[in-house]
Amino acid sequence: MTERAAIETLIKDAYEARHRGDLDAVMGYFHRDCSYRLSGASAPAPMFMQPTGHAAVRAQMAELIGAFVFSNVETLALTIEDERAALHWRADVLCVPSGRSAPFEVMDLFTIADGKILSLVQFTDTAGVAQLTGA
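User: That's the sequence. What structure does it adopt?
Assistant: C-alpha cells below.
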C-alpha cells in the first residue's frame, strides 16, 4: 500500500469510527502524542478546549461523541501531500443535549506520524455550533 493510500485509509476508517460513536476505535487512530483543536472559537466552552496527549484528546473526543451525532455525511474533497492531509466534508449534525440539528461543512487538517493522527485542526462555523448547542 502506498503512503498516500495508507493515509487515506487511516482518515476514512477514523471517521467511520467517529460517525458510529466508537470512542475506542477512534482513539486507536491517534498517535500517543496527539493534539486536537477546533479552530476559530474564542469562547472557553468545553468543546473548544485544545487538548494535547492521548488521554486528554480521548476525554475531549468522548465529550464530542456524546454531544454530536452525524448523519448524511459526505466527503467533498481529500488532499494528501506527504504527512499532511486536508479533508473537506459536510454532514447534518444533531446536538444531543439541545435536540437541535443543522447542516455543517467542515475542513479538517491532519498531520500524520508513525501511521497515526498526530494533530487534527478542525474548521467549521463556530457561531453555528454555539447556536446549535444553545451557548
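The chain has one domain: 3-133.
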